[in-house]
Structures
1.
Amino acid sequence: MLKIVVCVSGGGTNLQAIIDGVREGSVTGIEIVRLISNNKKAYALERAAQAGIDSICVSPRDYTDRAQFNEAFVREVDAVTPDLIVLAGFLVVIPPELIRKYENRIINIHPSLIPSFCGTGYYGLKVHEAALKRGVKVTGATVHFVDEGTDTGPIIMQKAVNVMPGDTPEILQRRVMEEAEWIILPKSLNLIAQGKVKVSDGQVEIAE
Ligand code: GRF
């Protein structure tokens, strides 16, 4: 059983996709052992409570400097000895020491087809605003391992979504969530839990 910590900052719909998948049996071999949010008001905390999942809030705002936050964050992750850390809309920079400690054991869901519309400043609706501004006809979502960069780690899975005439950033965000994020994140977790995901020379290989 793969023990996972999920880190969130907002609504938690990707967290909910994992919770629902485990409950329905479409996601197997994983257990969410802890939810960590930097935002005390995140609705993801309510979703965790309803699912009986332990959750805590750890925010840079609660510490005098970033080094103290980093230390506390690593401590709270280590406390539940996870096999995998899942960033599901987590808007805080991950401590470099955590990335080193959990090399290729931290994954992130990003709402674009990396390398498009990613990196510093591309999060939430901003990603979809940029896609619409550029006029792309196809966008989507990406699940990738987290390395020291921003959205630069090895790509595990991607799924394309059509941009439709008249799309607003909000409409496009919802379609990318429904048609891509909520599908590829649980799917990626299944593959990792089955030991089918390997990284070699910065490329992800998925065993059949
Ligand atoms: C999603 O769009 C995800 O791709 C991005 O942040 C958003 C989180 O949404 N990383 P939710 O909190 O899972 O609803």
2.
Amino acid sequence: MLRVVVMVSGGGTNLQAILDAMKDGKITNAEISGVISNKKDAYALTRAEGAGIPAVCVSPKDYAQREDFNEALLAAVDSFAPDLVVLAGFLVILPELLVKNYKNRMINIHPALLPSFGGKGYYGLRVHEEVLARGCKVTGATVHFVDEGCDSGPILLQKAVEVKHSDTPEVLQRRVMEEAEWQILPRAIDLISNGKVVFEDGRVFAKDM
Ligand code: GRF
């Protein structure tokens, strides 16, 4: 059974997609052992509690030094003894030690087709604003393993979504979430929990793809 820790900062719709997929049997051999947020008021924490999952908040605001926060965050993750860490809208710069300790065992969902519209400053609505400003006809979402860079680790899954001329950033964000993020993040976890992921020359592939 793959033990999964999900790290969140916002509404938790990606967490909800994982919970629903586990309930519906779309994710097998995995369980969420804990949810961690940096924001006390993140609705994702409410979702976790509603599902009976241990949920903790580790907020940078509670620590005088960043180093102390980093240590507390690493300890919180380790306390759930995860086999896989899932970043689902976690908007905190990760401590290097956390990334190092969970190399090839940490994934992130990004709301664009990396490497486009990724990297420092590209998160939330801004991603979709830039996609629209560029006049892109297609966007989507990416699940990738986390490395020491920003949105730069090996790509496991991507799913494309149509951009419509009439789209606002909010409408496009919702379509990307519904049609891409909430589909490929659960699928990525199921691939990992069932040993269907292969690392090859710094890239990663799903078996039978
Ligand atoms: C999603 O748009 C995701 O792509 C990004 O942060 C947002 C998280 O939303 N990484 P939610 O908290 O899962 O609803």
